[in-house]
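Take a look at the protein record below with the fold in mind.
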Amino acid sequence: MYWLNGIASQLSLANALRGNASTENTIHKPSDKTSAHFPQPRDIIYVAASPHASVFCSITSSAIYLWSVKPTAILSFIERSEKHTQDFGENVKVLWRPDATSIVIMTSKNYLLLYAILNFDQRSFEFNFPNSHHALVTGPGEGTGPRTMLLKFRLAIRVDAGVTCGTSSDDTLIIATEKPAAIQCISWNPHETHSTQTSLQSKLGIFVNPTEKITSAMYDKAMNISVWITDAGRVYFVQNIHPSMISPPRRRISRNMNATAVTSTPTHELFNGGPVMPSMPSYRDTINWTGSCFHGLQTQENGDQATTVAVNSKFSLIAVGTQSGKVYVYSIRNYTSAPILSHVLTRNLASHHRGSVHEKNQLYELAVESLAWTSDGYAIAVGFTGRGLAVWSVYGNLLTSITESDDIFYARGDADDGSYLANDAYVTGVKNLFWGPGNHHLFILSRNIALSKDDFYPTPRRSALFMLPFAKSAITSFHNADNARRGLVQMDDRILLYNYSGDYQENNTTTIDPDAALWTQVLYPPMYITDHWPIRYASISQDGRFIAVAGRRGLAHYNTYSNRWKMFGNQQQEQSFLVRGGMAWYKNILIAACELVDQPSSMTDKLYELRMYSRDTNLDNAHVLHIEHLAQLPLYISICGAYLLVYTADNVLNVYSILVRSEGSAMNANGNHTTANGMSSSPGATAARLERVRRVAFDNIVARASRVRGISLFGSFCGDQMVSLGDVINAHIMVLVDGKLIILSPRIPDDDDDSDLTGHASSQAQYDLHVLSDKTEYYWIGRKSIANLCTSIWLVDGKGVKMFANLLRGEDYGFSSFSTNDPFESEPSTPTTPGLLAMRASIGRPYSLGYHIGPEPASPSMSVIEMDGYSRWRIPSIRVLDEGTIYIPLDFYPHSVLLEKGVIVGIEQGMVFKQSLGFMVYKMSSKTHLFIHHILEHLLRRGWEEDAVVFGRAYERLIYFGHSLEILLHRVLEDETENQPAHAEPILPLVIKFLDQFPHALDVIVSCARKTEVALWGHLFSVVGEPKDLFELCLSDGRLRTATSYLIILQTMQPLAVGGKDTTRLLQKAMDEEDYELCKELVRFLSSIDHSGKTVQEALEVIKARMDPENPWSPKTEDAQMEKVLKSMEEHVV
């Protein structure tokens, strides 16, 4: 989802100071009078990003710096004079106005210093080159340079009651005072009359204890809620309800006051029978704070006191950081009730810690100092006071964890002062952090810690500002079905594509080697990325051939076969629109949802449209295949087979049929070749158009359209590949919203109902709603049918992968109906594809133990037979969904599932500490996980052995199929011997019966036994049979290598004399087969089990007897390999 990739950059203030650059590295002695008033230039105490994170502000105790993110540079700064600092106090904190036109500095003497940010069209920095244009020189987003922005002091506001914290709505500055404890709402333009409102905290009726005081407050505009933290460590969910909308309040006697107080019933009040919607706090209207406590209401354990909060409006979550280092994540189910606990984020730290740490400081170092959700809501960065940094996915997958106590730092000398981490000071502690635009960089302010302990001149470590580069999955920007099936990762200046064309299919054919599947790096076109950074959308085609990207304006697309980008040749056309809602590929046609910009001033409403571009033509408005106008803002688009789904801001899903044909057969009435929208075209060009066939409103299903992350159509047999209009009408609709995967199942329509065509459709009347899964980060529908696995839905929930197989499929599907042909295009190629298939002739025959599932084979030599009967592997209804769910836990984050390979591919965070350079290097490493054995175990536990055999045979060609069977046997064996309940029926006999349907059975059993504790052998061989019998079976089948493995088992379970005879017999067989390498291995085995050499001597005599020249079965004595065997045996005898 999000992974560190590269090295951290440290940002310096030195070049921005007038006349102080030469003093930056000067050590200030205690006698230096200037140090008593002004800190060192780099001593940053706080940073805060603007609402869109395009600029940010950092402060020292006496200076203010305004930065641009791209390029990363200081635009303006103000250095307050010594007298100004003495009069008004030192800088403490920064608050931004939501429109980024002003900031407020909170000072140590309870002043609010208001600064205006003046914007100018002129650029602050302009590149000057000898030639007219050097696109390659400028980096992403640096093409035109930053706009000129200046800080200008407006006024100072003294707050006599003292300021503890603050936040802001659109037009109102909201602060919490200390004496008395109150909430004040102040206009951002204090010169206005009646620009202040004050509410005493003790009279709000919100707090559990009326004496509590607010220590931290934040307001989230997207969700229109406020979150307050009090000095008791409690957290409150607060809203502003207009008094006219509130029903008469109940009254109660306060526990700690004699006077009556109004009880806050904030979020569940009704007005005229409907829920009350909160309003934005504004000084212009009467503010009525209502709320309830959702964290710390009960008696808090040590360390559960809240320290900081962050709101995720995309998934409706609130994260609460605590003193213990845990992060409690609460879900806002609706806006009429208090949040409920969703999950807890914790990490296991090393028990040791560099240096001596007192117990009283341990809790302080573990405390969460800062939280920051990504703008897309898919990840949260957590900064700890003394334990570094961690990044989790939205539902709890630990993506990155960096702390000073990591093992990689403990081999770097005995320095306890942290000097070895001077270039990565954030690993020792974080003061503040925030995400940059596009979430490609994480800005971190490190904690101020002493660097050395000199008795005379202690050198402080100044808090430093760092910028960490991140790579992210393309799903975070756009939950496209093909993005979810394939590994597409976005970085600041490039795209990483997981083995897009199968280059490694022939290079590595025998093993799973994720390192061999190199990521293909595709650099963004410099002329596009310099002006339109960051990339807002990325979409890959179904076959992985085409990639489209869209930034601030326009779009560009890439061909992975020709390695060429296509961009607009006309810059005005590129600047005339921006992509809103995403892009999707239909074969070689790119469909983009667009918003038109730079419209005539006479037009008040924005214009939206769907555009269809062909990859084969240039990007130009003259070559647009079709334009479909939309009345509402498009929020999401997706392709399901031959149909386009368009979800708009009015909470309506529109389904369009994609019609494409060759222009050679399409002519208008005049005989001229025309496109679908009437434009002339040359013969042979592609013509395409969209035709709306269905409209479904999501009333009473989706509260806010902006929270929808993904939509798909799903058929019980065809998956998401809709071919006909009948498939669309009968399809289920899957919606991912607020982490819930919802499925809408169609009801039987009335013959007279045509509301879906007239535009008055209602999903409540047409569909039944079911929740498939909670805490879903993303999902995708398998595009391929694998034997009796007709459809599959894969969900990622933060801990692993859930799979729903054959959901809502009918029961009348016989095994003979499952075609082995591939109806759809192939999945992404990987090095797991075996070039040399595991042929049965080379590893033995099935049914070695005499078990048969299904009909008996006509002859013992038959290895594959057709299964009779009907498949039972399905989930017939949502009511039994839990029974049919297959859960696959993972220790890495998955980014794609390769169905035909039986592999889940993902990414794991890696890091290396370079001692020679003195900084950390972060990298991503690919990981894979087999899922075949998980599915087989599920089928066998349900007693569906026929389905298990059919599904297993679909993967039997893979070289690592035997390894999957081995994992299956090992899991079942350990589970039954260690965790099996007394009343549970063991399935080990059924697993052995299943294994016997494949030629791998004997190898799997012995390999599993050798890797298992001896204590478990009794249970295993009580089901399989005696090892001696299996050894004999291997000898009779000529499987000498497998028989050799059984010798190790026999050597442990029977006397030496018997084992020596078995070894001698096997040695004779190996000689007959002229397998001299095996002969040498057997000689070494004999010498290892009998140190006296007696057994080796007996075997040597037998071999010499077999080498009698008169014996026709004796091998040739002049063979060099045989001479080596004899020499080896004689050496062991000596």
Q: What stands out?
A: The first strand starts at residue 2 and ends at 4.
